[in-house]
Amino acid sequence: MSTTDASTSVSYLDDLAPGQRFVGSMRLQVDAQRIKSFAAEFDPQPFHLDDDAARGTLFRGLAASGWHTAALTMRLLVGKDFPLAGGIVGAGFDELRWPLPVRPGDTLRVECEVLEVRPSKSRPEQGLLKLRTTTFNQHDQAVQISVGTLVVPRRGKGS
């Protein structure tokens, strides 16, 4: 996961350091039908399902569920830009915020910053990576900010 060679190598915990930043190249465009179909299955509230009903809410129009935004963010992370050894394995979140709604027509991208790298004392083959991930729309406005902890294998420690 380096900014210069993210697409060709896999990163282990030992390759990462606090302060490193990574900018994803993948983009996802969100359309109204996907917002509604996700909501119908997982978050069936009027402001996610119906354009007219949504206009009368605090969103003032159709908005994607925050959980849909989280799922889209995961899709943006899983790919060539963030190739962590062992995959993106979450251990939990310290923070998950949706400062702005995602709208039909928005195009999303992600940026990550390493906050902490901590080798495990009880499992020397792995460690924990604390990562701030910000999902932006096409106007470079943050639509989701999360701080999560990932389990990442260590290089040469049983990998």
From TrEMBL:
SUPFAM superfamilies: Thioesterase/thiol ester dehydrase-isomerase (SSF54637). Residues 18-122 form the MaoC-like domain. InterPro entries: HotDog_dom_sf, MaoC-like_dom, MCH/BMMD. It holds the Pfam family MaoC_dehydratas. This is MaoC family dehydratase. It comes from Comamonas antarctica. The lineage of its organism: Bacteria, Pseudomonadati, Pseudomonadota, Betaproteobacteria, Burkholderiales.
